[in-house]
Amino acid sequence: MAPPENHEQNQQNRQPSHQKKPAPLRRDALRNRELLVAAARELFAEQGINVPLDEIAKRAGVGNATLYRRFPARGDLVEAVFRDDLAAVMASGEKARREDDAWGALTTYLEGVCALLARDRGVSDLMTTGIEGAPTLDAIHVHNHETLSGLMRRAAAAGELRTDVVTEDLLFALSALGASLPAIESIRPGSWRRPLSLLLDGFRATAQRPLPERALTAEETDLVHRELGGEPPEA
Fold it and tell me: Residue 16, CB half-sphere, CA atoms under 13 Å: how many?
């Protein structure tokens, strides 16, 4: 038998797990959350993910305290706004991996990603920079790297991709192009396909010639993304 002083604690430990789940949001709290997510989506698309959080609260018509209660960090709000978009990118990557034509799958996948980035500055910021505290974003970056790496290996083996490039070469080039996609789209919709085509042609086996400098490592590429996102590099 458990000692008397531990009886209450043991009783608590035997409580069904479902009793420990957080209570559902009240109707007004749920409404405020929906208003904040909608306002954030609009402002992220217009101004990028670094828009002041106070401005998001103002557009949603709620107080700053309400915003920080629902979303303690920017990453929490980013996660709520972009989870579906990022899941769609991941699904597109899965489809590309199943294609037999690796080069064709690579170009189709990147065209789809770039079309999404061109439509939404917030998504463009997410995919071409870095932000802390967004697990779905972390997962899509890993998944995207795996998708590109696999397609590039297969395309190189098929003689269609130059053999002296690595995944970080493509990611860096795409980051540079991706940052400008919303502006290009706003001037002439769809015209971003031209620079993307030129970029991809540079990765074709027929374009191979000696390259100056070595490729950036994965760690160096991550530091570039952090710099683009306004985050200081880690010491």
Answer: 2
